[in-house]
Structures are given as C-alpha cells and as structure tokens.
Amino acid sequence: MKHFIENRDGRRISVLVETNKNPRGLVFVMHGLSGNKEQPHIMVMINAFKERGYNVISFDTTNTHGESDGNLEDATITNYYADLEDIISWSKNQEWYKEPFILAGHSVGGICVLLYAQKFPDKIMALAPISTVISGELSFQNKKSDSLEKWRREGMKTWVGHSGRTKRLKWSHMEDRLKYDVLREVDKIRVPVLLIVGENDDSTPVEHHKILYNALKSQKEFHIIKGAEHTFRTPEQLDEIKDIFLKWIDNLSKPLSK
Fold first, then answer.
1. 143 domain residue, yes or no
2. Average pLDDT score over the chain
3. With a threshold of 0.70, does the pTM exceed it?
C-alpha cells in the first residue's frame, strides 16, 4: 500500500508498504542519489526480502527523481538521512512495526543506513549497504581535481544520467557530504553486514569497500560483481545480486558459529 506522509520539514514523502501474512521481520530499503524505489536494483532487494517473508518498506526521499517533494539539485546526505529517520519514526505507530529491523540501501542510501545503525545500534538486526558511500573525504579524493574545481567555481554540476535525463546538483551537496564518515564510529556497528560493489564502480570503488570491510568487526560478507558499474543494470547482474541477498537472508536466521 502506498502512503504519502510529511517529513519534519512538512514535505511530502512517498512510502510503499508491502506486508506478508506471517512476517519474519521488517526491512527498510533506501535508494541512492537521484534514485527512486522503482529502480531495478532497488526492486531486486525489495523482492528478495519479500520472497523470504519480510515486511518491506521502501520510499522516495525528498530531493530526488521520484514521487516525493523537492528538487534533486538541493539533495544532500543530511536531507536523505533525515527522511530515513522520519520514515522509521512514522513506522513506529504502524501495526506491522517491529524491532530490531534490517536496513538496506544503495550508494547515498548505503551511507544513510550505516549512519542510522551507528546512531541507533539497538534497533538494527542487520545491514546491507550496497555500492555505498563511506565518507565524504573518500568521495572527494575519488573525483578529478579539475572537475571538482569546476563544480565548486560554478556552484552547480550538470550531467546526463543513464536514462538520458539531465541532472543538476549544487556544490553544497559536496560540502555537506564532507561532514560524514562512517569509519569514525565503525565500532558501533555490531550486526551482520552485507557489502556488494561493482567491479568497475568509479563512484564508490572496490577499494573504498575494502577499507570498510576491513574496519568492520561484526559478521560480514563482501561481494564484487564482475563487469558491473555503480548501478547494477543487466539481467545477469541483477540475478547475481538477488541470489546473494537470498543466501544472506537465509543465513541471518542461522545461529552464529562459535
């Protein structure tokens, strides 16, 4: 069932609630920068959890290309993260709400679910940050200096997405991103973590994920999808991701080996 709720700023957020008759648990799935809840790679995560009997909540953040209010050019990690908090707060009053729950997210959605787990560790059962942003500093270092300078000087970055749609993003996004680094409090993450990244991801590269993987002290898995970029698109890549998710979900119900 689709709902439209208001976030803390009075802006409308589109939320999709998909429930099972006898749910095994609750999952929140979050898209990345400029994404939405209907993207194929987001749907793969949603469907994997649905097939395993979970109630799944997905949503379009504000300031993205979806059904919620706002403009992409104003998007920040701060605003995406606040929307995640607001969705979960709204969920607490719903009959299907249950703690602890699972969080899954792609790219900026990935760092948001990690940040939430660090702030509210007791609410989390497991995490799946996919192609995740890890820190603003790593993002900054990963971009070419000339393109960064052009973005800073002009105050706006413009590019054409895979769909052919022109996208714009203010320099304030990068200034905001530099505030965040999940490595600072990585020890607060004490739950199973699933990391997946494309072999050819040039936005959140394999090397960044290795840094996070090595820093994590909890149960963890790390998968590199051969030939994939930042966003998983081909049927083969999507099938591989779904298979990884299904196996990981199944393992969550197994007792940890000693």
1. no
2. 96
3. yes
Structure tokens at 56: 């799944």
Cβ neighbours for 22, distance < 8 A, ≥ 6 positions apart: 53
Instruction: Please check whether residue 232 lies inside any domain of the structure.
Output: yes
**Are 48 and 175 a contacting pair, CB within 8 Å?**
no
Which domain, by its residues, includes 97?
Answer: 2-134+181-252
Note the pLDDT of residue 258: 40
DSSP annotation of 187 = G
Of the CA atoms within 13 Å of residue 187, those in its CB half-sphere come to 1
Tell me which residue of 22, 24, 186, 47 sits closest to 104, measured CA to CA: 47
Pair of tokens at residue 36: 């939405």
Domain holding 42: CATH number? 3.40.50.1820
What b/e readout covers 118-139, taking b as 16+ CB neighbours within 10 angstroms?
beeeeebbbbbbbbbbbbbebb
Does residue 239 lie in a domain region? yes
Count of structural domains within the chain = 1
Residue 143 pLDDT: 83
Cβ-contact 7, 86 below 8 angstroms: yes
Q: Please say if the pLDDT value at position 205 is more than 90.
A: yes
Radius of gyration of the chain (CA): 17
Could you identify the residue written with the tokens 């196996």?
247
Two structure tokens written together for 195: 């990391």
pLDDT in tens, 114-168: 999 999 999 999 999 999 999 999 999 988 788 899 999 999 999 998 888 899 9
